Amino acid sequence: MTPNFKLFMKGLVVFALIFISIDAFAEPYVEYKNEYSLKEWKHTKTTNHLRVGYKAENNLYFEIGPMTEGYSYEAGYKFKFNALTFKGKVETKDVGTSDTKVETEVRLNF
Predict the structure, then answer these.
(1) β-pair partners for 103
(2) End-to-end CA distance of the chain, in Å?
């Protein structure tokens, strides 16, 4: 097995364990995502993702699936408190080496 496949299988096992723990409260879905990358307004790369995901009633979600040249994983949340909304995610793209990013957003509605 390739290191890429082993990492994907480990991610799949973790994802399955998370799914089992929230299965009673989850809404499954399939998501397609396209990324069109530009550098100095010139196209550099296109990446397509196809993920299976689950959204829990507590606004947590988990996704996993193949992407162009590898696999991707994402987990996130969204919480609203009156006029404040907190939203964040962790996303990993694995194409032989892992590239992970963390995003956090805080929105105040008027």
Answers:
(1) 89
(2) 53
Give the amino acid at 103: E
- Neighbouring residues of 7: CB distance < 8 A, sequence distance ≥ 6: 71, 94, 98
The 10s digit of each residue's pLDDT in 24-73 is: 556 888 999 999 999 899 998 899 999 999 888 888 999 999 999 889 99
20 vs 17: CA distance, rounded Å: 5
Check: CB of residue 64 under 8 Å from CB of residue 76.
no
As a whole number of angstroms, the distance between CA 20 and CA 14 comes to 10
Residue 50 · residue 66 · CB < 8 Å: yes
| Beta strand 84-94 pairing with 98-108 | antiparallel
**Segment 31-37 long-range contacts (CB within 8 Å, at least 24 positions apart):** 31/63
Length of the chain: 110
Helix (H, G, I), strand (E, B) or coil at 82: coil
